[in-house]
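# nightly structure sweep
# worker-07 picked up a monomer target from the shared queue
# config: single-sequence mode, recycle default, output format = C-alpha coordinates
# input follows
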Amino acid sequence: MSALRLVFMGTPDFSVPALHALIAAGHEIAAVYSQPPRPAGRGKKLTPTPVHRAADAAGLEVRTPTSLKSAEEADAFAALNADAAVVVAYGLILPKAILDAAKLGCLNIHASLLPRWRGAAPIQRALLAGDAETGVCIMAMDEGLDTGSVLSRHSLPIGPRETAGDLHDRLSTSGADAITETLAALDAGTTVATPQPGEGVTYAAKLEKSEGRINWALSAEQLDRQIRALTPWPGCFFELPEHLGGARAKVLEAVPFTDNIAADSTATDKTTTDKTAANNAPENASPATILDSRTGTIACGSGALTITRAQRPGGKPVTGPEFLAALGLKSGDSLT
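# output follows
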Protein backbone atom coordinates (compact mmCIF):
# COMPACT_ATOMS: atom_id res chain seq x y z
CA MET A 1 0.00 0.00 0.00
CA SER A 2 1.27 3.46 -0.82
CA ALA A 3 1.42 6.04 1.93
CA LEU A 4 -1.47 8.48 1.86
CA ARG A 5 -1.50 12.11 2.89
CA LEU A 6 -4.17 12.30 5.60
CA VAL A 7 -5.91 14.76 7.85
CA PHE A 8 -6.91 13.27 11.20
CA MET A 9 -9.90 14.67 13.07
CA GLY A 10 -10.67 13.39 16.56
CA THR A 11 -10.96 14.40 20.20
CA PRO A 12 -11.37 11.77 22.99
CA ASP A 13 -9.41 8.72 24.12
CA PHE A 14 -11.46 6.56 21.74
CA SER A 15 -9.77 8.28 18.76
CA VAL A 16 -6.15 7.91 19.86
CA PRO A 17 -5.50 4.28 18.79
CA ALA A 18 -6.61 5.13 15.25
CA LEU A 19 -4.14 8.01 15.08
CA HIS A 20 -1.35 5.77 16.33
CA ALA A 21 -2.31 3.06 13.82
CA LEU A 22 -2.20 5.48 10.89
CA ILE A 23 1.22 6.74 11.93
CA ALA A 24 2.49 3.18 12.37
CA ALA A 25 1.17 2.26 8.90
CA GLY A 26 3.42 4.91 7.39
CA HIS A 27 0.79 7.43 6.33
CA GLU A 28 1.68 11.10 6.27
CA ILE A 29 -0.46 13.06 8.72
CA ALA A 30 -0.68 16.56 7.23
CA ALA A 31 -2.53 17.96 10.24
CA VAL A 32 -4.60 16.90 13.22
CA TYR A 33 -7.87 18.63 14.09
CA SER A 34 -9.23 18.38 17.62
CA GLN A 35 -11.56 20.24 19.96
CA PRO A 36 -10.00 23.28 21.66
CA PRO A 37 -8.45 22.88 25.12
CA ARG A 38 -11.06 23.14 27.89
CA PRO A 39 -10.84 24.00 31.61
CA ALA A 40 -10.42 20.83 33.66
CA GLY A 41 -9.64 19.79 37.21
CA ARG A 42 -9.96 21.77 40.40
CA GLY A 43 -7.80 24.55 39.07
CA LYS A 44 -9.79 24.75 35.82
CA LYS A 45 -6.55 24.76 33.87
CA LEU A 46 -6.91 24.69 30.10
CA THR A 47 -6.27 21.07 29.13
CA PRO A 48 -5.72 19.75 25.60
CA THR A 49 -7.75 16.77 24.43
CA PRO A 50 -6.32 13.23 24.38
CA VAL A 51 -5.90 13.44 20.59
CA HIS A 52 -4.21 16.83 20.90
CA ARG A 53 -1.73 15.40 23.40
CA ALA A 54 -1.06 12.34 21.24
CA ALA A 55 -0.47 14.52 18.19
CA ASP A 56 1.90 16.80 20.10
CA ALA A 57 3.85 13.76 21.27
CA ALA A 58 4.17 12.63 17.65
CA GLY A 59 5.32 16.08 16.50
CA LEU A 60 2.23 16.72 14.37
CA GLU A 61 0.57 20.05 13.62
CA VAL A 62 -2.63 20.47 15.66
CA ARG A 63 -5.51 22.73 14.72
CA THR A 64 -8.30 23.52 17.19
CA PRO A 65 -10.99 25.64 15.48
CA THR A 66 -14.28 26.17 17.28
CA SER A 67 -16.12 25.84 13.96
CA LEU A 68 -15.41 24.73 10.40
CA LYS A 69 -18.19 26.74 8.77
CA SER A 70 -16.18 29.74 7.59
CA ALA A 71 -14.65 30.08 4.13
CA GLU A 72 -11.28 30.67 5.80
CA GLU A 73 -11.41 27.30 7.57
CA ALA A 74 -12.50 25.55 4.38
CA ASP A 75 -9.61 27.13 2.46
CA ALA A 76 -7.12 26.18 5.18
CA PHE A 77 -8.36 22.58 5.11
CA ALA A 78 -8.25 22.40 1.29
CA ALA A 79 -4.70 23.80 1.30
CA LEU A 80 -3.54 20.66 3.10
CA ASN A 81 -4.08 18.81 -0.20
CA ALA A 82 -5.04 15.61 1.60
CA ASP A 83 -5.85 12.30 -0.04
CA ALA A 84 -8.41 11.62 2.70
CA ALA A 85 -9.57 12.72 6.11
CA VAL A 86 -10.11 10.23 8.93
CA VAL A 87 -12.75 11.35 11.43
CA VAL A 88 -13.19 9.67 14.82
CA ALA A 89 -15.46 11.23 17.44
CA TYR A 90 -14.32 14.72 16.45
CA GLY A 91 -17.30 16.64 17.78
CA LEU A 92 -17.78 19.29 15.08
CA ILE A 93 -20.05 19.18 12.04
CA LEU A 94 -18.15 18.95 8.78
CA PRO A 95 -19.71 21.26 6.15
CA LYS A 96 -19.88 20.23 2.52
CA ALA A 97 -16.79 22.27 1.59
CA ILE A 98 -14.74 20.17 4.03
CA LEU A 99 -16.36 16.87 3.03
CA ASP A 100 -15.51 17.54 -0.63
CA ALA A 101 -11.96 18.82 -0.15
CA ALA A 102 -10.03 15.54 0.22
CA LYS A 103 -9.49 13.50 -2.93
CA LEU A 104 -10.86 10.24 -1.47
CA GLY A 105 -13.33 11.92 0.86
CA CYS A 106 -13.80 11.89 4.62
CA LEU A 107 -13.94 8.51 6.33
CA ASN A 108 -15.60 8.11 9.72
CA ILE A 109 -14.97 5.37 12.28
CA HIS A 110 -18.36 4.77 13.91
CA ALA A 111 -18.81 2.45 16.90
CA SER A 112 -21.94 0.59 15.85
CA LEU A 113 -23.32 -1.64 13.13
CA LEU A 114 -24.99 1.03 11.03
CA PRO A 115 -27.77 1.94 10.51
CA ARG A 116 -28.35 0.85 14.12
CA TRP A 117 -27.27 3.49 16.62
CA ARG A 118 -26.44 6.47 14.49
CA GLY A 119 -25.46 9.40 16.67
CA ALA A 120 -23.46 10.41 19.71
CA ALA A 121 -23.59 7.48 22.18
CA PRO A 122 -23.75 4.20 20.24
CA ILE A 123 -21.76 2.16 22.78
CA GLN A 124 -23.96 3.06 25.72
CA ARG A 125 -27.23 2.75 23.79
CA ALA A 126 -26.31 -0.74 22.59
CA LEU A 127 -25.74 -1.84 26.19
CA LEU A 128 -28.91 -0.17 27.46
CA ALA A 129 -30.92 -1.94 24.78
CA GLY A 130 -29.42 -5.33 25.64
CA ASP A 131 -27.91 -5.84 22.17
CA ALA A 132 -26.04 -9.10 21.75
CA GLU A 133 -23.50 -7.61 19.35
CA THR A 134 -22.12 -4.34 18.12
CA GLY A 135 -19.12 -3.39 16.05
CA VAL A 136 -17.36 -0.77 13.99
CA CYS A 137 -18.26 0.64 10.59
CA ILE A 138 -16.00 2.69 8.34
CA MET A 139 -18.32 5.11 6.62
CA ALA A 140 -17.88 7.50 3.68
CA MET A 141 -19.24 10.68 5.23
CA ASP A 142 -22.00 12.75 3.71
CA GLU A 143 -23.98 15.69 5.06
CA GLY A 144 -26.40 13.51 7.06
CA LEU A 145 -26.06 12.21 10.62
CA ASP A 146 -24.08 8.98 10.13
CA THR A 147 -25.98 8.25 6.91
CA GLY A 148 -23.07 7.67 4.52
CA SER A 149 -22.30 4.48 2.66
CA VAL A 150 -20.44 1.80 4.61
CA LEU A 151 -17.02 0.78 3.29
CA SER A 152 -16.30 -1.92 5.87
CA ARG A 153 -18.10 -3.53 8.78
CA HIS A 154 -16.59 -5.40 11.73
CA SER A 155 -18.87 -7.14 14.27
CA LEU A 156 -18.07 -7.86 17.92
CA PRO A 157 -20.13 -9.81 20.46
CA ILE A 158 -21.04 -7.94 23.62
CA GLY A 159 -19.90 -9.81 26.72
CA PRO A 160 -22.54 -10.49 29.40
CA ARG A 161 -20.68 -8.43 32.02
CA GLU A 162 -19.09 -5.77 29.80
CA THR A 163 -19.35 -2.14 30.79
CA ALA A 164 -19.33 0.81 28.40
CA GLY A 165 -15.70 1.33 29.39
CA ASP A 166 -14.79 -2.25 28.46
CA LEU A 167 -16.61 -2.07 25.15
CA HIS A 168 -15.18 1.37 24.41
CA ASP A 169 -11.64 -0.01 24.58
CA ARG A 170 -12.37 -3.04 22.39
CA LEU A 171 -14.17 -0.98 19.75
CA SER A 172 -11.43 1.64 19.77
CA THR A 173 -8.85 -1.01 18.96
CA SER A 174 -11.11 -2.60 16.33
CA GLY A 175 -11.66 0.80 14.71
CA ALA A 176 -7.92 1.41 14.49
CA ASP A 177 -7.42 -1.93 12.72
CA ALA A 178 -10.41 -1.35 10.45
CA ILE A 179 -9.37 2.09 9.23
CA THR A 180 -5.90 0.94 8.15
CA GLU A 181 -7.41 -2.01 6.27
CA THR A 182 -10.03 0.19 4.63
CA LEU A 183 -7.52 2.82 3.53
CA ALA A 184 -5.40 0.10 1.91
CA ALA A 185 -8.44 -1.20 0.03
CA LEU A 186 -9.49 2.32 -0.93
CA ASP A 187 -6.02 3.07 -2.27
CA ALA A 188 -6.09 -0.19 -4.23
CA GLY A 189 -9.54 0.55 -5.62
CA THR A 190 -11.09 -2.59 -4.14
CA THR A 191 -13.57 -1.08 -1.68
CA VAL A 192 -17.30 -1.46 -2.20
CA ALA A 193 -19.46 1.35 -0.83
CA THR A 194 -22.72 -0.13 0.47
CA PRO A 195 -25.57 2.33 1.03
CA GLN A 196 -27.24 1.97 4.41
CA PRO A 197 -30.67 0.33 4.31
CA GLY A 198 -33.75 2.30 5.23
CA GLU A 199 -34.83 -0.37 7.70
CA GLY A 200 -33.35 -0.83 11.16
CA VAL A 201 -32.39 2.79 11.74
CA THR A 202 -32.03 3.78 15.40
CA TYR A 203 -30.51 6.87 16.99
CA ALA A 204 -28.07 6.98 19.89
CA ALA A 205 -28.92 10.23 21.62
CA LYS A 206 -26.26 12.01 23.66
CA LEU A 207 -26.08 10.82 27.26
CA GLU A 208 -27.47 13.00 30.04
CA LYS A 209 -26.35 12.79 33.67
CA SER A 210 -29.97 12.34 34.73
CA GLU A 211 -30.04 8.96 32.96
CA GLY A 212 -27.91 7.60 35.79
CA ARG A 213 -30.77 7.83 38.30
CA ILE A 214 -31.73 4.34 39.51
CA ASN A 215 -35.40 3.44 39.65
CA TRP A 216 -35.62 0.32 41.78
CA ALA A 217 -39.08 -0.43 40.33
CA LEU A 218 -37.36 -1.49 37.11
CA SER A 219 -36.33 -5.11 36.66
CA ALA A 220 -32.96 -6.37 37.82
CA GLU A 221 -32.06 -7.02 34.18
CA GLN A 222 -32.82 -3.42 33.20
CA LEU A 223 -30.85 -2.02 36.12
CA ASP A 224 -27.91 -4.27 35.37
CA ARG A 225 -27.82 -2.95 31.80
CA GLN A 226 -28.14 0.62 33.02
CA ILE A 227 -25.24 0.33 35.46
CA ARG A 228 -22.96 -1.33 32.91
CA ALA A 229 -23.94 1.10 30.13
CA LEU A 230 -23.30 4.19 32.24
CA THR A 231 -19.94 3.02 33.64
CA PRO A 232 -17.66 4.93 33.80
CA TRP A 233 -19.76 7.98 32.81
CA PRO A 234 -22.12 9.41 33.96
CA GLY A 235 -22.46 6.67 36.59
CA CYS A 236 -25.58 5.48 38.42
CA PHE A 237 -27.01 6.84 41.65
CA PHE A 238 -30.03 6.98 43.94
CA GLU A 239 -31.11 9.29 46.76
CA LEU A 240 -30.79 7.99 50.29
CA PRO A 241 -33.72 8.41 52.70
CA GLU A 242 -33.98 11.70 54.58
CA HIS A 243 -32.97 10.10 57.87
CA LEU A 244 -29.70 9.06 56.20
CA GLY A 245 -29.02 12.53 54.83
CA GLY A 246 -30.99 12.39 51.59
CA ALA A 247 -27.83 12.72 49.48
CA ARG A 248 -26.92 10.75 46.41
CA ALA A 249 -25.23 7.38 46.72
CA LYS A 250 -23.48 5.75 43.78
CA VAL A 251 -23.83 2.15 42.61
CA LEU A 252 -20.54 1.40 40.88
CA GLU A 253 -20.99 -2.32 40.18
CA ALA A 254 -23.84 -4.80 40.55
CA VAL A 255 -24.96 -8.16 39.20
CA PRO A 256 -28.42 -9.64 38.78
CA PHE A 257 -29.20 -12.07 41.57
CA THR A 258 -29.07 -15.16 39.31
CA ASP A 259 -25.61 -14.20 38.03
CA ASN A 260 -24.45 -13.72 41.59
CA ILE A 261 -25.62 -17.20 42.58
CA ALA A 262 -23.91 -18.81 39.60
CA ALA A 263 -20.64 -17.10 40.49
CA ASP A 264 -20.86 -18.12 44.16
CA SER A 265 -22.10 -21.70 43.97
CA THR A 266 -19.69 -22.82 46.71
CA ALA A 267 -21.48 -20.79 49.40
CA THR A 268 -24.42 -23.19 49.75
CA ASP A 269 -26.05 -21.85 52.92
CA LYS A 270 -25.77 -18.21 51.97
CA THR A 271 -26.88 -18.94 48.43
CA THR A 272 -29.99 -20.79 49.59
CA THR A 273 -30.98 -17.98 51.93
CA ASP A 274 -30.33 -15.32 49.34
CA LYS A 275 -32.13 -17.27 46.60
CA THR A 276 -35.27 -17.68 48.70
CA ALA A 277 -35.33 -13.97 49.52
CA ALA A 278 -34.72 -12.90 45.93
CA ASN A 279 -37.31 -15.22 44.44
CA ASN A 280 -39.92 -13.92 46.88
CA ALA A 281 -39.01 -10.29 46.23
CA PRO A 282 -41.85 -9.36 43.84
CA GLU A 283 -44.53 -10.70 46.21
CA ASN A 284 -43.10 -9.95 49.65
CA ALA A 285 -40.77 -6.97 49.28
CA SER A 286 -41.17 -3.54 47.77
CA PRO A 287 -38.54 -2.37 45.27
CA ALA A 288 -35.42 -1.00 47.02
CA THR A 289 -35.89 -3.32 50.01
CA ILE A 290 -32.67 -4.90 51.29
CA LEU A 291 -33.24 -8.64 51.00
CA ASP A 292 -29.89 -9.68 52.44
CA SER A 293 -27.50 -7.14 53.91
CA ARG A 294 -24.74 -9.79 54.09
CA THR A 295 -24.60 -9.96 50.30
CA GLY A 296 -25.93 -6.53 49.34
CA THR A 297 -28.96 -8.01 47.55
CA ILE A 298 -31.76 -5.53 46.81
CA ALA A 299 -35.32 -6.16 45.62
CA CYS A 300 -36.22 -4.71 42.23
CA GLY A 301 -39.54 -4.41 40.40
CA SER A 302 -38.74 -7.85 39.05
CA GLY A 303 -35.98 -10.03 40.48
CA ALA A 304 -33.14 -8.75 42.63
CA LEU A 305 -29.79 -7.05 42.20
CA THR A 306 -26.66 -7.66 44.25
CA ILE A 307 -24.58 -4.52 44.76
CA THR A 308 -20.92 -5.47 44.60
CA ARG A 309 -19.40 -1.98 44.80
CA ALA A 310 -20.94 1.30 45.93
CA GLN A 311 -20.01 4.70 47.31
CA ARG A 312 -21.86 6.78 49.85
CA PRO A 313 -21.63 10.59 49.85
CA GLY A 314 -18.15 11.65 50.92
CA GLY A 315 -16.99 8.05 51.20
CA LYS A 316 -14.72 5.76 49.24
CA PRO A 317 -15.83 2.91 46.98
CA VAL A 318 -16.55 -0.19 49.09
CA THR A 319 -18.29 -3.54 48.72
CA GLY A 320 -22.08 -3.67 48.82
CA PRO A 321 -22.23 -5.18 52.32
CA GLU A 322 -19.72 -2.59 53.58
CA PHE A 323 -21.78 0.18 52.01
CA LEU A 324 -24.95 -0.97 53.79
CA ALA A 325 -23.16 -1.49 57.10
CA ALA A 326 -21.65 2.00 57.01
CA LEU A 327 -25.16 3.41 56.69
CA GLY A 328 -26.48 1.22 59.47
CA LEU A 329 -28.85 -0.58 57.11
CA LYS A 330 -29.92 -4.19 57.59
CA SER A 331 -32.10 -6.77 55.85
CA GLY A 332 -35.65 -5.52 55.56
CA ASP A 333 -34.70 -1.82 55.43
CA SER A 334 -35.24 0.26 52.30
CA LEU A 335 -32.62 2.13 50.30
CA THR A 336 -35.05 4.94 49.50
